[in-house]
Amino acid sequence: QVQLVQSGAEVKKPGASVKVSCKVSGYTLTELSMHWVRQAPGKGLEWMGGFDPEDGETIYAQKFQGRVTMTEDTSTDTAYMELSSLRSEDTAVYYCASRRPYCTNGVCYQWADWFDPWGQGTLVTVSS
Amino acid sequence: DIQLTQSPSFLSASVGDRVTITCRASQGISSYLAWYQQKPGKAPKLLIYAASTLQSGVPSRFSGSGSGTEFTLTISSLQPEDFATYYCQQLNSYQWTFGQGTKVEIK
Description:
The complex is a heterodimer. Chain A is mainly beta. In chain A, 0% of the residues lie in helices and 50% in strands.
């Protein structure tokens, strides 16, 4: 059973950076493709980026290019998302969410085209 | 980027009702569509993947259909625990996008 456990809530001032962690259990991080999705208060889900296992590189949504860095520590099976130059609009719940291998109808595939499971979410509040 | 548009954005229904939510893609995505359920204060939960495959453990009253640009999520008989917000999601050219969500509330 894969489980993703995220770090606790953060309060940051505008212009600061925040680093959120996501600890994997039940699998190793190398067996997963980890992504990050955020949700502003009362709003929908927004994909920020994630690891592309086919190309072996991290892909970021254009909106966050230059401001977000996603890293992994395979020795501790922990993924990290760091967002810099924070502004009030970055106040949101940040989720890690994973792609993993799956089998259906007797056929197994290396990577799902959906996210399951998700972490519990980390609230980041940006306020002066 | 491919855009996903859900309709309606909000619906009010009663326990036992049949509910249908539509997700339209701005261009064809074959069957690369998933549906999630989200309750307040909780992470999204996968319901359906590959447009019509029910995730293990999800009640059979949930079903998905469609391919190309038009997809539907149907709840055959709405239960009290189904009142939540539902999102569709697609992957194309390694750009993942979500629909804006459909909130299902009690009438």
